Amino acid sequence: MATQIDHVLHHLRQKIITGELPSGSRMVELDLAALLSVSRTPIRIALGELEKEGLLERLATRGFRVRRFTASEVADAIDVRGALEGMAARQIAEQGLSAEVRDQLQSCVADGQRLLLQARSDSHVVDAVGWVAMNAAFHRVLVQAAGNSTLASALAHVGRTPMASAGALSLNGTLPLLEYEFIRRAQSDHEDVLAALMAGEGTRAEALMREHARRSRNNKRALMAHWPMRSPP
């Protein structure tokens, strides 16, 4: 079920951010279940997750509709996320990286290397579902390891802006070489952040996370420029 939910999430997310499901569209469970050939259970779970990501808004009359958002709103939220995650990375380095957190981050880095290798042998098409899960895990481990509940709460709030959370990557395979290059650099960022944390370099780790977010902001702007208008005609 978990894998099925991931795939439903991926497909619905891409239909929203590329405009196939434009702003204001009602999300009807039965129709979506038929469209994706799944039961209503993974659809219902996926809609709840997309609400948390900020892509959907809950209606007073029950159900969801696609939320309106602009590239500027996304960029501003990602800048704030970078500042907060940079603070988390600095705090981890200053506290000392535990063996458990190191192993979790190394596992994420290894998964990223595997996904890039797989993409190189598959016309540079990245497994978006796999990358989103790994990327979200890497960022989640950092935030949890900082042990700062106020910081975590602020990040959760920022993550409700569409496409701003670490788990809201916007790959859809239509620009494989460009998307692959974005992912390749993001993987390099993850490796550099881990190296800085292992060396106890708090200032460097913070700067790397801020730069990582800045690149994510610019990448999403570039990808959104290739998408059709999201508003309904």
Structure, explained:
With 233 residues, the chain is mainly alpha-helical. Helices cover 69% and strands 3% of the residues. The protein has helices at residues 2-17, 29-36, 40-53, 71-95, 99-120, 128-146, 149-158, 176-198, 202-224, and strands at residues 26-27, 56-58, 64-66. It is globular, with a radius of gyration of 18 Å. The N and C termini lie far apart (36 Å).
Topology:
Blueprint lengths: L1 H16 L8 E2 L1 H8 L3 H14 L2 E3 L5 E3 L4 H25 L3 H22 L7 H19 L2 H10 L17 H23 L3 H23 L9
Antiparallel strand pairs: 1-3, 2-3
Primary descriptors:
233 residues, mainly alpha, Arc Repressor Mutant, subunit A, Four Helix Bundle (Hemerythrin (Met), subunit A), 2 domains, three-stranded antiparallel sheet, 3 strands, 69% helix, 3% strand, globular
Summarize the structure.
The chain is mainly α and 233 residues long. β2 (56-58) and β3 (64-66) form a beta hairpin.
CATH topology of the largest domain: Four Helix Bundle (Hemerythrin (Met), subunit A)
Task: Give the strand order, joined by hyphens, for the main sheet.
Answer: 1-3-2
Report the average pLDDT across residues. 89
Oligomer: single chain
What's the story with the biggest beta sheet? 3 strands, antiparallel
Shape: globular
Number of separate structural domains: 2
Helical fraction equals 55-70%
Low-confidence stretches: 229-233
Q: Total number of helical segments?
A: 9
